[in-house]
Amino acid sequence: MKTRKSFVLCAAAIAAASLPVAGAAAEAKLKAASFLPVRSIVAKQFVRFVEETNKQCSGKVNISVVGPEAVPSLEQWNALKNGVIDMHYGPPNYWRGVVPAGDVISVARNESEEQRRNGAWAMINAEYNKKLNAYYLTHLFNGVRFHLYTTKPAKDRKFEGMRLRSVPIYDAFFKSLGAQPLRMAPPDVYTALERNTVEGYGWPLWGIQDFGWDKYTKFRHDPGFISAAVAVIINLDKWQGLQAGQRDCLTRMSLWVEGEWPKWRAAEDAVQKAAQEKSGVKAVDMGADFALQAEEIYWQDLTKGDAEFVRKIRPLLSGK
Protein backbone atom coordinates (compact mmCIF):
# COMPACT_ATOMS: atom_id res chain seq x y z
CA MET A 1 0.00 0.00 0.00
CA LYS A 2 2.83 2.31 0.90
CA THR A 3 4.59 1.47 -2.39
CA ARG A 4 1.46 2.24 -4.40
CA LYS A 5 1.04 5.58 -2.56
CA SER A 6 4.66 6.52 -3.30
CA PHE A 7 4.19 5.67 -6.97
CA VAL A 8 1.09 7.87 -7.20
CA LEU A 9 2.87 10.77 -5.53
CA CYS A 10 5.87 10.39 -7.84
CA ALA A 11 3.68 10.28 -10.94
CA ALA A 12 1.85 13.39 -9.76
CA ALA A 13 5.14 15.20 -9.23
CA ILE A 14 6.34 14.34 -12.73
CA ALA A 15 3.05 15.49 -14.23
CA ALA A 16 3.21 18.74 -12.30
CA ALA A 17 6.76 19.36 -13.44
CA SER A 18 5.70 19.05 -17.06
CA LEU A 19 3.02 21.70 -16.73
CA PRO A 20 3.81 25.35 -17.66
CA VAL A 21 4.94 27.41 -14.70
CA ALA A 22 2.30 29.97 -13.79
CA GLY A 23 3.14 33.32 -15.35
CA ALA A 24 5.88 31.92 -17.60
CA ALA A 25 5.64 32.98 -21.25
CA ALA A 26 6.10 30.64 -24.15
CA GLU A 27 8.85 31.58 -26.61
CA ALA A 28 7.51 34.29 -28.92
CA LYS A 29 7.80 33.36 -32.58
CA LEU A 30 8.31 36.50 -34.66
CA LYS A 31 8.13 36.53 -38.45
CA ALA A 32 10.38 39.20 -39.97
CA ALA A 33 10.55 40.41 -43.57
CA SER A 34 13.67 41.90 -45.16
CA PHE A 35 13.29 44.30 -48.07
CA LEU A 36 16.25 42.68 -49.86
CA PRO A 37 17.04 38.96 -50.28
CA VAL A 38 18.75 37.52 -47.23
CA ARG A 39 21.84 36.60 -49.29
CA SER A 40 22.56 40.28 -50.11
CA ILE A 41 25.22 42.11 -48.13
CA VAL A 42 22.59 44.58 -46.91
CA ALA A 43 20.31 41.89 -45.50
CA LYS A 44 23.18 39.80 -44.12
CA GLN A 45 23.74 42.43 -41.43
CA PHE A 46 20.14 42.03 -40.24
CA VAL A 47 20.46 38.23 -40.34
CA ARG A 48 23.60 38.58 -38.21
CA PHE A 49 21.57 40.57 -35.66
CA VAL A 50 18.71 38.04 -35.77
CA GLU A 51 21.00 35.05 -35.25
CA GLU A 52 22.61 36.62 -32.20
CA THR A 53 19.21 37.65 -30.84
CA ASN A 54 17.86 34.12 -31.21
CA LYS A 55 20.92 32.85 -29.37
CA GLN A 56 20.85 35.36 -26.53
CA CYS A 57 17.05 35.40 -26.19
CA SER A 58 16.58 31.63 -26.53
CA GLY A 59 13.42 30.53 -24.73
CA LYS A 60 12.03 34.06 -24.90
CA VAL A 61 12.09 35.13 -28.54
CA ASN A 62 12.78 33.42 -31.86
CA ILE A 63 12.86 35.39 -35.12
CA SER A 64 12.56 33.89 -38.60
CA VAL A 65 13.36 35.95 -41.69
CA VAL A 66 11.83 35.95 -45.16
CA GLY A 67 12.74 38.17 -48.10
CA PRO A 68 10.86 39.93 -50.90
CA GLU A 69 10.15 36.59 -52.55
CA ALA A 70 7.63 35.98 -49.74
CA VAL A 71 6.41 39.55 -49.19
CA PRO A 72 7.17 42.15 -51.91
CA SER A 73 9.57 44.85 -50.68
CA LEU A 74 7.24 47.82 -51.09
CA GLU A 75 4.38 45.99 -49.36
CA GLN A 76 6.31 44.92 -46.27
CA TRP A 77 5.80 48.08 -44.21
CA ASN A 78 2.03 47.88 -44.73
CA ALA A 79 2.05 44.17 -43.90
CA LEU A 80 3.76 45.09 -40.63
CA LYS A 81 1.30 47.90 -39.91
CA ASN A 82 -1.60 45.49 -40.35
CA GLY A 83 0.00 42.68 -38.37
CA VAL A 84 0.53 40.29 -41.29
CA ILE A 85 4.23 40.17 -40.35
CA ASP A 86 5.70 40.92 -36.93
CA MET A 87 9.00 42.60 -37.82
CA HIS A 88 10.37 44.49 -40.79
CA TYR A 89 13.86 45.44 -41.92
CA GLY A 90 13.49 48.20 -44.48
CA PRO A 91 14.43 51.79 -45.45
CA PRO A 92 12.15 54.43 -43.92
CA ASN A 93 11.83 56.29 -47.23
CA TYR A 94 9.54 53.41 -48.29
CA TRP A 95 6.88 54.56 -45.81
CA ARG A 96 7.34 58.32 -46.08
CA GLY A 97 3.77 58.59 -47.33
CA VAL A 98 2.60 57.50 -43.87
CA VAL A 99 5.41 58.93 -41.71
CA PRO A 100 6.55 62.01 -43.70
CA ALA A 101 9.69 62.68 -41.67
CA GLY A 102 10.40 59.06 -40.74
CA ASP A 103 13.55 58.99 -42.86
CA VAL A 104 15.49 61.55 -40.83
CA ILE A 105 17.91 58.80 -39.80
CA SER A 106 19.24 58.87 -43.37
CA VAL A 107 20.68 62.35 -42.88
CA ALA A 108 21.94 61.77 -39.35
CA ARG A 109 25.62 62.43 -38.69
CA ASN A 110 25.83 60.75 -35.29
CA GLU A 111 25.69 57.15 -34.12
CA SER A 112 22.63 55.29 -32.82
CA GLU A 113 23.89 55.35 -29.22
CA GLU A 114 23.96 59.16 -29.24
CA GLN A 115 20.49 59.28 -30.79
CA ARG A 116 19.17 57.29 -27.84
CA ARG A 117 20.91 59.48 -25.30
CA ASN A 118 19.77 62.81 -26.70
CA GLY A 119 16.12 61.90 -27.30
CA ALA A 120 16.12 61.52 -31.11
CA TRP A 121 15.30 57.80 -30.91
CA ALA A 122 12.32 58.48 -28.64
CA MET A 123 10.97 61.14 -31.01
CA ILE A 124 11.20 58.81 -34.00
CA ASN A 125 9.65 55.95 -32.04
CA ALA A 126 6.70 58.14 -31.06
CA GLU A 127 6.08 58.95 -34.73
CA TYR A 128 6.21 55.27 -35.67
CA ASN A 129 3.89 54.34 -32.78
CA LYS A 130 1.29 56.89 -33.83
CA LYS A 131 1.43 56.71 -37.63
CA LEU A 132 2.75 53.25 -38.51
CA ASN A 133 1.51 51.09 -35.62
CA ALA A 134 5.16 50.17 -35.17
CA TYR A 135 7.78 50.15 -32.43
CA TYR A 136 11.24 51.33 -33.47
CA LEU A 137 13.77 48.77 -32.23
CA THR A 138 16.93 50.07 -33.90
CA HIS A 139 18.50 50.58 -37.32
CA LEU A 140 21.48 49.32 -39.27
CA PHE A 141 23.51 50.72 -42.14
CA ASN A 142 23.76 54.19 -40.64
CA GLY A 143 27.01 55.71 -41.85
CA VAL A 144 27.13 53.51 -44.96
CA ARG A 145 26.74 56.32 -47.48
CA PHE A 146 25.29 56.36 -50.95
CA HIS A 147 27.60 57.02 -53.87
CA LEU A 148 27.14 58.08 -57.47
CA TYR A 149 28.58 55.43 -59.78
CA THR A 150 29.02 55.97 -63.53
CA THR A 151 30.11 54.05 -66.60
CA LYS A 152 31.92 57.08 -68.03
CA PRO A 153 33.62 60.18 -66.62
CA ALA A 154 31.58 63.26 -65.85
CA LYS A 155 32.26 66.22 -68.15
CA ASP A 156 34.10 68.92 -66.21
CA ARG A 157 32.92 67.16 -63.02
CA LYS A 158 29.30 67.71 -64.08
CA PHE A 159 26.58 65.21 -64.95
CA GLU A 160 24.53 67.21 -67.45
CA GLY A 161 22.09 64.96 -69.32
CA MET A 162 23.42 61.72 -67.85
CA ARG A 163 20.78 59.04 -67.27
CA LEU A 164 21.12 57.75 -63.72
CA ARG A 165 19.14 55.04 -61.98
CA SER A 166 17.74 56.74 -58.91
CA VAL A 167 15.29 56.51 -56.00
CA PRO A 168 13.26 59.26 -54.30
CA ILE A 169 15.82 59.79 -51.54
CA TYR A 170 18.30 61.38 -53.98
CA ASP A 171 16.18 62.23 -57.04
CA ALA A 172 16.34 65.96 -56.28
CA PHE A 173 20.10 65.82 -55.74
CA PHE A 174 20.69 64.12 -59.09
CA LYS A 175 18.50 66.72 -60.79
CA SER A 176 20.55 69.48 -59.14
CA LEU A 177 23.63 67.94 -60.82
CA GLY A 178 21.93 68.19 -64.21
CA ALA A 179 21.32 64.45 -64.46
CA GLN A 180 18.14 62.66 -65.50
CA PRO A 181 16.92 60.30 -62.73
CA LEU A 182 15.32 57.07 -63.94
CA ARG A 183 13.39 54.59 -61.84
CA MET A 184 14.00 50.84 -62.05
CA ALA A 185 14.22 47.87 -59.70
CA PRO A 186 17.73 46.66 -58.75
CA PRO A 187 17.45 43.41 -60.75
CA ASP A 188 16.92 45.48 -63.92
CA VAL A 189 19.99 47.68 -63.51
CA TYR A 190 22.49 45.15 -64.88
CA THR A 191 20.72 44.96 -68.24
CA ALA A 192 20.29 48.74 -68.28
CA LEU A 193 24.05 49.20 -67.81
CA GLU A 194 24.80 46.55 -70.41
CA ARG A 195 22.54 48.26 -72.98
CA ASN A 196 23.59 51.79 -71.99
CA THR A 197 20.02 52.61 -70.99
CA VAL A 198 21.57 54.21 -67.93
CA GLU A 199 25.06 55.68 -67.56
CA GLY A 200 25.20 55.36 -63.82
CA TYR A 201 23.29 54.83 -60.63
CA GLY A 202 23.09 55.69 -56.98
CA TRP A 203 23.88 52.90 -54.52
CA PRO A 204 25.58 52.49 -51.14
CA LEU A 205 29.28 51.73 -50.88
CA TRP A 206 28.37 48.11 -50.20
CA GLY A 207 27.00 45.54 -52.60
CA ILE A 208 27.51 46.51 -56.24
CA GLN A 209 29.22 43.13 -56.70
CA ASP A 210 26.07 41.36 -55.48
CA PHE A 211 24.35 42.35 -58.72
CA GLY A 212 27.38 42.21 -61.03
CA TRP A 213 27.24 45.96 -61.66
CA ASP A 214 30.99 46.29 -61.10
CA LYS A 215 31.49 44.78 -64.58
CA TYR A 216 30.29 48.03 -66.18
CA THR A 217 31.04 50.53 -63.42
CA LYS A 218 34.16 52.66 -63.98
CA PHE A 219 33.85 55.55 -61.50
CA ARG A 220 32.66 56.04 -57.90
CA HIS A 221 32.21 59.68 -56.94
CA ASP A 222 33.23 60.48 -53.37
CA PRO A 223 32.47 61.47 -50.69
CA GLY A 224 29.38 59.40 -50.01
CA PHE A 225 26.15 61.29 -49.39
CA ILE A 226 23.14 60.53 -47.19
CA SER A 227 23.14 57.37 -45.11
CA ALA A 228 21.65 54.10 -46.36
CA ALA A 229 20.07 53.58 -42.92
CA VAL A 230 17.63 50.67 -42.65
CA ALA A 231 15.16 50.52 -39.77
CA VAL A 232 14.28 47.47 -37.69
CA ILE A 233 10.68 47.83 -36.53
CA ILE A 234 8.12 45.57 -34.87
CA ASN A 235 4.34 45.71 -35.03
CA LEU A 236 3.22 47.79 -32.05
CA ASP A 237 0.40 45.44 -31.04
CA LYS A 238 2.82 42.50 -31.13
CA TRP A 239 5.36 44.48 -29.09
CA GLN A 240 2.80 45.40 -26.43
CA GLY A 241 1.63 41.77 -26.29
CA LEU A 242 5.09 40.46 -25.43
CA GLN A 243 6.07 39.72 -21.86
CA ALA A 244 8.33 42.24 -20.14
CA GLY A 245 11.28 39.85 -20.28
CA GLN A 246 10.83 39.37 -24.01
CA ARG A 247 10.72 43.11 -24.66
CA ASP A 248 13.75 43.60 -22.41
CA CYS A 249 15.75 41.01 -24.36
CA LEU A 250 14.92 42.61 -27.72
CA THR A 251 15.88 46.01 -26.34
CA ARG A 252 19.12 44.63 -24.93
CA MET A 253 20.01 43.14 -28.30
CA SER A 254 19.19 46.41 -30.05
CA LEU A 255 21.62 48.20 -27.76
CA TRP A 256 24.17 45.47 -28.38
CA VAL A 257 24.03 45.80 -32.17
CA GLU A 258 24.24 49.60 -31.93
CA GLY A 259 27.47 49.20 -30.00
CA GLU A 260 28.84 46.64 -32.46
CA TRP A 261 27.75 48.39 -35.64
CA PRO A 262 30.58 50.95 -36.01
CA LYS A 263 33.12 48.08 -35.93
CA TRP A 264 31.13 46.00 -38.42
CA ARG A 265 30.82 49.02 -40.71
CA ALA A 266 34.52 49.92 -40.66
CA ALA A 267 35.56 46.35 -41.45
CA GLU A 268 33.11 45.96 -44.33
CA ASP A 269 33.87 49.42 -45.74
CA ALA A 270 37.48 48.33 -46.24
CA VAL A 271 36.41 45.06 -47.88
CA GLN A 272 34.02 46.79 -50.28
CA LYS A 273 36.49 49.50 -51.32
CA ALA A 274 39.16 46.89 -52.01
CA ALA A 275 36.72 44.81 -54.09
CA GLN A 276 35.71 47.84 -56.15
CA GLU A 277 39.32 48.83 -56.73
CA LYS A 278 40.10 45.28 -57.86
CA SER A 279 37.18 45.50 -60.32
CA GLY A 280 38.65 48.68 -61.80
CA VAL A 281 36.29 51.19 -60.18
CA LYS A 282 38.14 54.49 -59.81
CA ALA A 283 37.37 56.82 -56.90
CA VAL A 284 36.80 60.46 -57.90
CA ASP A 285 36.98 63.08 -55.13
CA MET A 286 34.19 65.61 -55.67
CA GLY A 287 34.95 67.64 -52.54
CA ALA A 288 33.08 67.98 -49.25
CA ASP A 289 30.38 70.20 -50.74
CA PHE A 290 29.20 67.29 -52.88
CA ALA A 291 27.84 65.39 -49.88
CA LEU A 292 26.70 68.51 -48.04
CA GLN A 293 24.63 69.58 -51.02
CA ALA A 294 22.89 66.19 -51.19
CA GLU A 295 22.11 66.20 -47.49
CA GLU A 296 20.79 69.76 -47.44
CA ILE A 297 18.49 69.04 -50.38
CA TYR A 298 17.09 65.98 -48.58
CA TRP A 299 16.64 67.88 -45.32
CA GLN A 300 14.58 70.43 -47.22
CA ASP A 301 12.56 67.64 -48.81
CA LEU A 302 11.84 66.11 -45.39
CA THR A 303 10.85 69.54 -44.07
CA LYS A 304 8.04 69.70 -46.62
CA GLY A 305 6.50 66.63 -45.00
CA ASP A 306 6.67 67.72 -41.34
CA ALA A 307 8.44 71.01 -40.77
CA GLU A 308 7.94 71.15 -37.00
CA PHE A 309 9.25 67.63 -36.40
CA VAL A 310 12.31 68.27 -38.59
CA ARG A 311 13.01 71.58 -36.84
CA LYS A 312 13.10 69.83 -33.46
CA ILE A 313 15.02 66.71 -34.41
CA ARG A 314 17.64 68.06 -36.81
CA PRO A 315 19.95 69.45 -34.07
CA LEU A 316 19.80 66.04 -32.35
CA LEU A 317 21.09 64.28 -35.46
CA SER A 318 23.72 66.78 -36.54
CA GLY A 319 26.55 65.04 -34.73
CA LYS A 320 27.80 68.31 -33.33
Label this structure with key terms.
320 residues, alpha/beta, D-Maltodextrin-Binding Protein, domain 2, 2 domains, six-stranded mixed β-sheet, five-stranded mixed β-sheet, 11 helices, 46% helix, 19% strand, disordered N terminus
What can be said about this structure in brief?
With 320 residues, this protein is an alpha/beta fold. 46% of the residues lie in helices and 19% in strands.
N→C terminal distance = 81 Å
Mean pLDDT: 91
Number of domains: 2
CATH superfamily of the largest domain: Bacterial extracellular solute-binding protein, family 7
Separate helix tally: 11
Description:
The chain is of the alpha/beta class and 320 residues long. It has two domains: 26-142 and 229-268, 3-Layer(aba) Sandwich (D-Maltodextrin-Binding Protein, domain 2), CATH 3.40.190; 145-227 and 281-317, Bacterial extracellular solute-binding protein, family 7 (D-Maltodextrin-Binding Protein, domain 2). It has helices at 2-18, 41-56, 76-81, 112-117, 120-132, 168-176, 186-194, 236-241, 244-278, 288-305, 307-317, and strands at residues 28-34, 61-66, 87-90, 134-140, 145-150, 163-165, 180-182, 200-204, 219-227, 230-235, 282-285. The strands form two sheets. It has a six-stranded mixed β-sheet with strand order 7-6-8-5-9-11, covered by helices on one side. It has a five-stranded mixed β-sheet with strand order 2-1-3-10-4.
Topology:
Layout: H1 2-18, E1 28-34, H2 41-56, E2 61-66, H3 76-81, E3 87-90, H4 112-117, H5 120-132, E4 134-140, E5 145-150, E6 163-165, H6 168-176, E7 180-182, H7 186-194, E8 200-204, E9 219-227, E10 230-235, H8 236-241, H9 244-278, E11 282-285, H10 288-305, H11 307-317
Parallel strand pairs: 1-2, 1-3, 6-7, 6-8, 9-11
Antiparallel strand pairs: 3-10, 4-10, 5-8, 5-9
Helix pairs in contact: 2-9, 6-10, 10-11
